Amino acid sequence: MDVILESQRLIYKPLSCKHLSIDYVNWLNDNNVIRYLETGGNYTLKMLSEYLKEVEKKNIYFWAIHLKESDKHIGNIKIDPINMRHGLGEYGIMMGDSKEWGKGYAYEASDKIIQYSFEDIGLRKLTLGVVEDNIAALTLYHKLRFSVEGVYKEHGLYEGKYCNVIRMAIFNRGNEK
Fold first, then answer.
1. In 3D, which of 83, 34, 28 has the Cα closest to residue 52?
2. Of 102, 61, 99, which Cα lies nearest the Cα of 80?
């Protein structure tokens, strides 16, 4: 997947070994960044390099989010896995650079990738899972018009306690906003 996309303030480049950096490793070791993610903690440059090599081998929709003005890599967003038979895709985002939080970049990136998923890939539904305690993510997903489809009770261990995971979805409604 070699699709490069742009929105008002951001550029989305295919995630690759070009994104290997100590800053990226630091995101994966930052408890504030990874507290509700399935990955991260005790990462090294070598581990990240191996991961990025695996990503490059796969033909998936996985972008690095860059600021247009500086080309700074601030996070990642993906639609994976995709099931074309059923028109489904799983959405995921990580805003790694905490200095850039609270500026609307997660919304801007998500809105662009959701639009691309529906209009260009041709999906009919995007799904996601979010830890119930992750209020910032829940706020974002509701703003993006995801709706709750179900709750997995005490599904994952986060910060030393078992938490509910909310399953959410958004449907392609054509031009409906």
1. 28
2. 61
Asked if residue 14 has a cis previous peptide bond (ω within 30° of 0), the answer is: no
The pTM is what? 0.94
Strand partners, 83: 88
Fill in the DSSP letter of residue 43.
-
18-to-22, 69, 101, 129 alpha-carbon distances in Å: 12, 19, 23, 28
| List of E strands, 53-87 | 61-67, 73-83
Q: What is the layout of strands, in order, in the sheet containing 10-14?
A: 5-6, 10-14, 61-67, 73-83, 88-95, 125-131, 161-171, 147-158
Regions of the chain short of the pLDDT cut 50: 175-177
pLDDT at site 126: 98
Judge whether 152 counts as a catalytic residue.
no
Give pLDDT, residue 177. 43
Contact 25, 10 (CB under 8 A): no
Checking 36-39 for CB contacts under 8 A at 24+ apart, the result is 36/130, 36/131, 36/133, 36/134, 36/137, 36/158, 37/94, 38/156
Candidates 141, 152, 158, 162; catalytic one: 141
